[in-house]
Here is the input.
Amino acid sequence: MSIVPILALAAGTFALRFAGTALRGRVSMPDHVRDLLATAALVLLVALAATAALAKGQSFGGWALAAGVAVGGLLAWRRAPFLVVVVAAALITALLRLAGVG
Amino acid sequence: MRSTWRTLDRESRRGITAIVAASFVSGLSFGAIAVASGMALWVPLVMSVLVFAGGSQFLAVGLVAAGGSPVAAVAAGLALNARHLPFGLAVGHLLGDRLAARLLGSHLLVDESVAFAMAQRDPARAKAAFWACGAGLFAGWNLGGLLGALAGQSIADPGALGLDAVFPALLLALVIPAMTGPDKWRPALAGAAIALATTPLLPAGVPVLLALLGMAAVPRRRATTDEVPA
Here is the structure.
């Protein structure tokens, strides 16, 4: 890969990031709009979590990954510490793969 | 930086440390994969510093390595990164007023720094979480990328260690406490369902953006007396 596509991806990504933060800084907005923006960010984060847990590219990500993340989610729901959630998810995924689960 | 770290509670500091460690290992695999697929040593290094968005970097390198055109790789990477615009709208006020801070903060705006900031109730802690997580990830991702590129193919497969489960599990741990009522969980579940249903059909990044259609599931606001109808 040459430097040109790297610079294009970098510039475009930075523009997307900066556009959002700059708009937020300039426009004063009512409380319910702020609340909706926070909800929109949550919606995106949950969608990212769901697709990262269940998909690899455009196909199913495998039962080991899905099960590991599900256990992590259950622990998070029971208010387990971050470290416990993350280590449990990785460990279960790794052990299931070791056992031959796809 | 030290006072930023101290502003955070112990639980957040541990969470940030864990995700920085995981980003170091994914950085290792990114550097190793890029070099193993025939790219020059500087490619993953420059990319990690300038782009600093792991998913789009893996995607672009993968597409080019598979014989795709660089234009397609850039377009796919930008589609994947389009979510950063609404993320910026949600947390932009945490970056302060100075231009230098806004520029640097915009570059450090990644899924994890947004998620950690949104998980804090107090604005000072939200700001500290954003900067600590963003700076930590930048260091971890780039250091990992450098070592991975130098080591090349000798790096173990991160999948065997279950590291691909770390990102979604951490996101769940950050967003679940924020699901305070139906005005949050209804759009979130609807959005996740839309993203999952469209993932097999659409290019990477687009399904997550389509999740925003789930916002239609936000319960309608009751009219309040202090607002004048437009």
